Amino acid sequence: MLSVEGHDRTKVMNQSWKRCQDFGLAPSDPWDDNLLSETRIRELLDQRGPIVKHAEQVFERMSSFIKQTKQIAMLIDAEGHIVHSVGDPDFSCKAGLIQLKVGANWEERRKGTNAIGIALAEKMPIRVHAGEHYFVSHHFLTCASSPVFGTNGELLGVVNISGKQENFHDHSLMIASLAADSLQNRLIVEDSMKEHLITLKELDYTARNHPMPLLTLDKDNRIIRANQAALHVVGRDAIGKEFNSHKGFAVETIQDYQGKSWRSVAIRKPQSGDKHLYTFEDIVGSCPSILQRKELAYKAALTDFPVLLLGESGTGKELFAQSIHTAGPRRDQPFIAVNCSAIPDSLVESELFGYERGAFTGANREGQMGKFSAAHKGTLFLDEIGDMSLRAQAALLRVLQEGILTPVGSVKERSVDVRIIAATNRNLTEEVQEGRFRADLYYRLKGIQVTLPPLRERKDLLMLVHALLEKNSQRIPLLTEAAQRKLLDYHWPGNIRELNSVLVQATFLSDGGSISPEHLPIENIDQRLPAEDRSDVVTSLQDAEIAAIKQALRVTEWNVRKAADLLKIGRTTLYRKIEEYGIVFF
Ligand SMILES: Nc1ncnc2c1ncn2[C@@H]1O[C@H](COP(=O)(O)OP(=O)(O)OP(=O)(O)O)[C@@H](O)[C@H]1O
C-alpha cells in the first residue's frame, strides 16, 4: 500500500491537526486516562481471536527488527483499541506511561494527531515523527502505522510500530505496511477456507438429497464422491475406484481459469427407460376380479415372499410388480427389471451376476455389476421368466437357493439380498409338465401367485377407458354410444396396453370432438370373418395375413417378439413377412 510523502504528507498532517483542534483538543492537554478494564480487554481478545492469532505469528517474524531497533509492534482494532503489543521491554515501560499499551484507545479524538489515529481516519499507511504529534507529551515518539482490510474492503484494524524518536528507522513504515499486508492475506485465506468448507458442506447436502445419481471424479478419473443414488448404480464400494463411463452418465469436466482441468462431475439424467415407479393407486379397476388381485398383491407387498405374476401380455404385470415394490419395506431401495427373454442365452450369467474385468472377449474392460447386485436390498423383477432357457434356469435357481453369487470370471462369492418378483404370460404348470421349465424353480418363484385377468373378462372396461382418457389428455373427449359399444364388443388381445394405444389414437383422430366408432382403429377379426362369409366378397389369404400381422404389431406397439407370439409364428418368420409385404411402421 502506498504511503504519502512530501507535500501530500504535510497536507494529511495539517488536516489531522485541524480535526484535533475541531475536537477541542489542545497540545498541552493531559492524555486521556480512560483505559479498558481487564475483563473488557479479555472480551475484545475473544472477539478478535483470529486476527490476534495471526498478528502474533506475523510479529514473531519481524521480532529481530523490532528488538534491534528497540521498538514495539502493536495491533489496534478498528475502534482504535490496542489489543496486542510485543517488543522492547524498556521502551514498553516508557510507552506505558503515556498509555501506548494494551487497553488504550489511540483515535485522534483521544490522543490527538498520531500514526494510529491517522491510519484509522484516512485508511492509509503513515509515519508520525516527534513534533508532528499533536500532544507535546508524545513528541518523544516516532510511529509508523498501516491499516488492515478485510475481504470486502472493510477496515479491520491497524498495525503500528513505535519507538523513541532517536531510534527512528527508515524501514519502519515499510515493515508496518508489509506486516499489515501479510495479516490481511492470512485473514483472506482463512475466510476463503471457511467459505470453501461451507461450499463443500452445501454441495454434500445437495448431492446427498439429489434424486439423480451424481459422482465427482478426480483428474485421474477416480470416483472421489458419490451420492446414494449414484452408489446404487456404480456399486457401494466405488469410491476410490476408476470410473468407466457407466451407461447414462454425462461427464462434465471442471477447469480452472487457465483451462487446466481439475475434476469432473458425472450426472445420470433420467433416460427414456427411467420412469417413476407405479403404486397401487395407479392400478385402475372396479371389477371384483381386479380388486381381489390388488388386495392379494398388497398383502404380499408387506411380506418378503417371492411373488409370481401370471397373465396375458398387457394385463398389468409390471404395474403390479412395481406397486408391490413401492408398497413394501424395500421401497427406498432399487427396483431392477430384467426381461429374461431379451437376454441371449450365452450372456444370462454375466447379465444377472455381473463379471470381473477381462472375463471374456467382448466384455467391458473394467467388468460390470450384474442385475442381482444392482438390486441388492431391493427388488429384482424377472419379467418373461417362462422364456428362460433351462441352462439359465439352473444358474438362477442356485442363486435363489443360496443367496450367493459368483460373478463370471471371479473366484470370490458375493452374498445378495433381493426380493424376487417374477412374471410370465405362459402357462407355467404346462411348461413344467412339458419339461421346459424346472419344477424346483417354479415352486421357489411361486411364493404368492397372482393371476391377472385379461381385459375381455373384466366388467369395468368403460371405467378403465375413462381413467386412461383422463390420464392421456387435458380435456377428456366424449365417447358416442356406438363407440362404447365397439369397445365393449372387441376381444382385446393386447389387453390394457392395446386399449391405451387405441384411445391415444382415437383422441388424436377425433380432433377435440366426440370419439365415434370410425376413430377407433380396431377390427375384431374373429367377428369380421363370419360377416364376410355371409357376403359374396372373399378376402384373399394374403390380405387376411397382412391384416392379422398389422393388428398384432399395433396391439403390441411393434414388439415383434410379442406380435410373433400372438400370431403363433416364429420371430424370424414375422420379420421375413414384414419385409415381404412391405409393412412399414404405422
Ligand atoms: N389396471 C390398470 N390400470 C391402469 N393402467 C394399466 C392397468 N393395467 C395395465 N395398465 C397399463 O397397461 C400397460 C401395460 O402394462 P404392463 O406393462 O404392466 O403389462 P404386462 O402384463 O407387464 O405386459 P407384458 O407381459 O407384455 O410385459 C402399461 O402402460 C400400464 O400402465
Automatic annotation (TrEMBL):
One of its GO terms (biological process) is regulation of DNA-templated transcription. It comes from the Bacteria. InterPro entries: AAA+_ATPase, AAA_lid_NorR, GAF, GAF-like_dom_sf, Homeodomain-like_sf, HTH_Fis, P-loop_NTPase, Sigma_54_int. CDD domains: AAA (cd00009). PROSITE patterns: SIGMA54_INTERACT_1 (PS00675), SIGMA54_INTERACT_2 (PS00676), SIGMA54_INTERACT_4 (PS50045). The keyword ATP-binding applies. GO terms for molecular function: ATP binding; sequence-specific DNA binding. Keywords: ATP-binding, DNA-binding, Nucleotide-binding, Transcription, Transcription regulation. Pfam families: AAA_lid_14 (PF25601), GAF (PF01590), HTH_8 (PF02954), Sigma54_activat (PF00158). Gene3D superfamilies: 1.10.8.60, 3.30.450.40, Homeodomain-like (1.10.10.60), P-loop containing nucleotide triphosphate hydrolases (3.40.50.300). This is Sigma-54-dependent Fis family transcriptional regulator. It comes from Paenibacillus baekrokdamisoli.
